[in-house]
Design a protein that fits this description.
Elements lengths: L1 H24 L4 H8 L13 H5 L8 H4 L24 H8 L9 H4 L13 H9 L4 H9 L5 H7 L2 H5 L5 E10 L9 E3 L2 H8 L15 E2 L1 H9 L6 E9 L29 E6 L5 E6 L3 H8 L12 H12 L6 H9 L1 H5 L1
Parallel strand pairs: 1-5, 3-6
Antiparallel strand pairs: 1-2, 1-4, 5-6
Helix pairs in contact: 12-13, 14-15
Bound molecules: heme C (7 copies).
The site of one heme C has 17 residues, from helix 6, helix 7 and helix 10.
């Protein structure tokens, strides 16, 4: 009882300290900090922060000194060590969820996130997310362990974010990226995500979004998707699709239903109705644009380079697709057969 009242009485004092601390310690603002830390001539490589990247994150709105409270005006001459806030201070919910997993013993927040380049799920590509994992989980090892039960493990791991199978979400959505051919190396699908600069070569003066969003209404219709696919000028560009969780969760684990091919294939979760196209930004992040509902059902001719076996326009094809997959003589027969069966759709 006594402890409790003491605790309450401390709150105003604590608040005062919290409010004053950043104001009293330094008059330097984010630009001052970046004057040195954004320049490799001023600081060592390991203290360098990509200023352009940082300034485009929500963390930048708080300023450097919110997280590095102890920095003084005499920094760096005072030689004092600088404190860094813990993620937990501000992200309690995520922290609670993650700390409850056994994976918390294996990796901290900072192992997967750079606090100076923190982005939300919608701004990051599946490939970038998987790079967080591959710092510790060697691609070759992951490939061989998954290939024990997952056919085309190479294709699956290249296309799917690890978190689609290793975290839970209430729903999932289809994400399309623009890719272009590259020389095929091990562990790749032979296609690279197009960068902002790549696409700028095609769009010239115009926004890169206009390559697909022809009427520039901030939304992609099925007709626009098809026009893009059929335009000979863009013949080197391809759309690549994947399935991503609608929300990032941190309950890292192995989910039983991910052994189940029909989780993604066959008629698929209803969420396959929702799809987005991710356009690259100049800073390396992505901005999503919504695509007409049902784009998945249209993919056979809308986006000829991507389909989820089973998510086809006709119910009978779904069943055939399923039988092919579950029947055991997986690929390449399945692929060829489906392509053959759906050739009419693609000729539209
Ligand atoms: C005049 C250039 C300069 C400015 C301005 C500057 N820094 Fe530094 N900072 C340095 C150097 C040099 C070091 C390395 C110091 C050392 O190794 O003792 C450093 C080190 C750091 C470290 C790592 C310290 C550690 O204990 O590892 C942090 C964090 C940091 N600075 C944050 C900031 C923040 C936040 C600001 C703005 C409020 C800022 N710096 C402004 C030059 C600068
Ligand atoms: C959201 C909180 C947050 C903000 C905002 C933030 N930092 Fe940091 N910073 C951290 C954390 C946490 C670490 C410790 C990282 C670690 O231990 O791996 C860190 C580490 C550093 C380091 C040590 C080198 C490194 O990258 O680990 C420097 C230098 C630094 N910060 C400078 C800055 C500067 C300059 C700014 C503003 C441009 C800034 N920080 C903004 C949280 C933040
Ligand atoms: C001083 C408070 C504070 C600290 C400390 C902090 N964050 Fe954040 N962070 C925020 C706020 C505010 C947002 C924006 C709202 C939200 O997403 O919760 C945010 C957003 C994020 C995002 C999503 C960015 C986006 O664009 O949606 C990530 C990822 C993130 N933080 C990671 C971290 C990590 C990792 C750490 C620890 C190194 C950390 N944060 C420490 C305040 C903080
Ligand atoms: C095993 C890797 C991993 C660890 C550990 C991890 N995260 Fe994440 N986190 C991700 C991935 C992947 C995303 C999706 C977006 C991205 O990659 O930035 C994400 C997204 C986020 C977001 C944005 C959520 C949104 O709705 O977009 C926040 C905030 C965040 N993490 C905070 C944290 C905090 C705090 C911790 C530590 C308690 C933590 N993360 C530990 C992988 C991790
Ligand atoms: C800092 C290193 C590190 C990072 C980053 C990391 N992991 Fe792990 N992870 C480990 C270690 C260590 C283990 C335990 C040994 C093992 O199973 O390989 C583990 C175990 C696992 C397991 C199996 C055990 C379990 O908890 O179910 C899965 C699944 C997993 N990690 C997925 C991921 C995913 C997905 C990411 C990226 C979002 C990721 N990890 C990022 C270090 C890491
Ligand atoms: C199609 C769904 C799926 C995808 C995508 C996926 N995993 Fe898994 N993963 C699983 C399943 C299911 C298991 C359990 C396998 C078992 O019990 O043998 C597993 C097991 C694991 C394990 C523990 C066993 C081991 O291999 O050591 C790790 C670690 C792991 N995955 C990491 C990853 C990483 C990293 C990625 C992204 C590169 C990834 N997974 C992508 C479904 C997936
Ligand atoms: C988490 C979602 C997910 C799960 C679970 C999953 N897949 Fe896939 N699968 C995909 C995606 C995404 C592709 C790539 C589609 C594309 O780009 O062509 C794919 C592609 C394939 C292909 C190749 C089709 C082609 O175009 O060549 C086969 C075969 C396949 N999956 C079989 C399976 C089998 C069998 C299982 C169960 C053991 C399974 N998949 C589990 C999402 C999944």
């Amino acid at each position: 009882m006594k402890k409790y009242s003491l605790h309450i009485s401390l709150i105003p004092a604590l608040l005062l300290v919290m409010l004053w601390a950043p104001l009293t310690v330094t008059a330097m603002d984010t630009d001052d900090c970046l004057g040195c830390h954004g320049d490799t001539d001023m600081v060592d490589e390991e203290l360098f922060i990509d200023a352009e990247g940082f300034l485009h994150t929500v963390h930048a709105e708080m300023g450097c000194d919110t997280c590095h409270e102890s920095v003084t005006d005499e920094h760096p001459d005072d030689g004092e060590a600088i404190t860094s806030s813990a993620c937990l201070d501000c992200h309690e919910e995520v922290s609670d969820e993650y700390m409850a997993t056994s994976h918390a013993e294996n990796a901290t927040c900072n192992d997967c996130h750079d606090p100076h380049q923190a982005h939300g799920l919608e701004a990051v590509s599946g490939t970038d997310m998987n790079q967080q994992c591959s710092q510790c989980h060697e691609n070759d090892e992951v490939l061989s362990s998954h290939a024990e039960w997952l056919p085309q493990a190479n294709l699956h791991l290249a296309k799917l974010p690890c978190i689609t199978c290793h975290t839970s979400s209430d729903s999932y959505e289809v994400l399309l990226n623009i890719t272009q051919k590259q020389s095929k190396t091990k562990g790749s699908t032979g296609y690279n995500f197009s960068t902002y600069a790549d696409l700028k070569e095609y769009s010239g003066e115009k926004e890169i979004q206009s390559l697909i969003d022809i009427n520039e209404d901030g939304h992609i219709s099925l007709a626009e998707l098809r026009t893009f696919n059929l335009n000979p000028a863009y013949k080197k560009l391809h759309l690549s699709g994947t399935l991503v969780p609608s929300e990032a969760s941190h309950d890292l684990s192995t989910l039983d239903n991910r052994y189940d091919c029909t989780f993604c294939h066959a008629a698929g979760p209803g969420s396959l109705q929702t799809s987005f196209l991710a356009f690259p930004n100049a800073t390396g992040t992505y901005t999503r644009m919504t695509v007409d509902e049902g784009a998945m059902l249209d993919t056979l001719y809308g986006t000829p380079n991507f389909y989820m076996t089973g998510s086809t326009r006709s119910a009978s094809l779904n069943i055939i697709g399923l039988l092919i997959i579950c029947g055991g003589f997986i690929m390449p027969i399945g692929h060829g057969t489906l392509r053959f069966l759906t050739r009419k759709n693609r000729q539209h």
